[in-house]
Amino acid sequence: MKDFFRLDLAKDAQFFQTPEGLLAGSLVLLLLGLFLKLLERVSRPNVAVLIRALRRPLMLGFGISLYAGWLFGLLAKNIAVITDAEVIKVTTSLVFFAIGRAVTIAGLKILHSGSFNRWLLKEVEDDRERAMLVALIDRVFCIAVLLITSAAIMIAMGVSATAVGAVLGGAGIGIGFGTQQISQNFLSGLMLFFNRPFAEGDWIKVSTFEGTVERIGWYHTRIRTFDRRPLFIPNSVFATTPIENPGRMYNRRIKVEISLRYEDIDRINGVTASVKAMLKSHEAIDQSQTILVNFNQWDSSSVNMLVYCFTKTTIWGDWLDQQQDVFLKIADIVKQAGADFAFPSTTLYPPSSMDPQQPWFGQSQVDQASKR
Description:
five-stranded antiparallel sheet; about 60% helix; alpha+beta
């Protein structure tokens, strides 16, 4: 049965190498072109765009296959090296190539069409994640069509299907071992899409790297550091390194220790109570988060007050303005309480038995002793 189908295929291919077959094939191509043109006019706009994209590669591919097969057939009759079987293989391979190219163009047209984007908008609302999904489907689809077309061409050239499967499987294993790092980066790129720890436009921190994600590629991810330099990170790094995504933070934190003088120890309770009341009434502070104001440390030159709260905004510029406003209000509270801020200082206590007549006892020390 298999030989019977091969014989029929050979007879059909040989027919198109004759002048009658060339004429018939040209007529079929003409009718196909007219049919696709008519179908494009009566179809809906989105279908018409797809047919228009298919018409050119199909007509061009089938036309090249037809006339190249006829030309090779003429050469086979005059050159002993070229046989009819080889002409059939080449012609069939050209047909498979034309079909593969047409399928690729049609798939990409559908993938980037307005209808598909509207459907995808219902499933994925975020613009950046939707763009990542389209890019991923684009890559997987192109690779799949390329592999299927290559396998079909190999079979058309006379390679058995079993051998093609074995070759593709062995090639996959060999490529996996030989390009292990590339495979890790590619698979990590898929992991980044499905897990979505970050998207294009997010601000991320990975190990010692920090910046804004500009593009997530097959092999590496490009981020723009804060000094405006591009940084390319292999995707495999993200599979083994913790990723911090400050761009998706819920709040920004204000955490500071304010140093007051030791002589203000009796005013600490009033200052902390006033600062906490100010924070609880501040419109920029998120009241659903923790708010702490406490005397928490004895320092060498000061007593320290911890101020801990969260702002509603996550935008850095706005956060800086709101933090500044909080700091200035804390400064007013401290001044109104009669307290002041401490700074590093050292106090010297001279012994009471010090003799001003000693030669090393300078005039400044004499003046200070006389004042005491």
